[in-house]
Amino acid sequence: MYNKELISPCGLYCGVCGIHKAGVDKDEPLKEKLAKLYGVDSPAKIECAGCRSEEPFFFCRVCAIKSCAEEKNFEGCQQCESFPCEKIQGFPYPEAKGNMLRAVPRWRELGTEAWVKEEEERFRCKSCGTDSFRGARKCRQCGTVFAF
Ligand SMILES: [Zn+2]
Known about the structure:
mainly alpha
């Protein structure tokens, strides 16, 4: 069974997010790297229990996509006829937007449980089996360069 707090309505599944992973793994070098990338003053702030948890990482705390899904009482955009709406199309980060456009139709096809497994599988190192995350360029365990 999947953790509901990790199911972000936009399709950027939190289980394969670097912020979440760095916190869970207590990966200090990764936290430092992500703190710089997100302009956070302390690596200790690189923690997140998920988009739907009590206190998500600041970057995802206020989100028009999440608010919209909540208003419509949807688990996610896969339930919405308007996908991909202007909130998705206008999302300011091309890589994230690309992942939404890729992931939400799969979510719709597979249903949440199978889709979560597929997302986790997708971002797992094919060489050594270590779980990785969206945006990683290479495996932090074995150094294999990723194609995704
Ligand atoms: Zn690896």
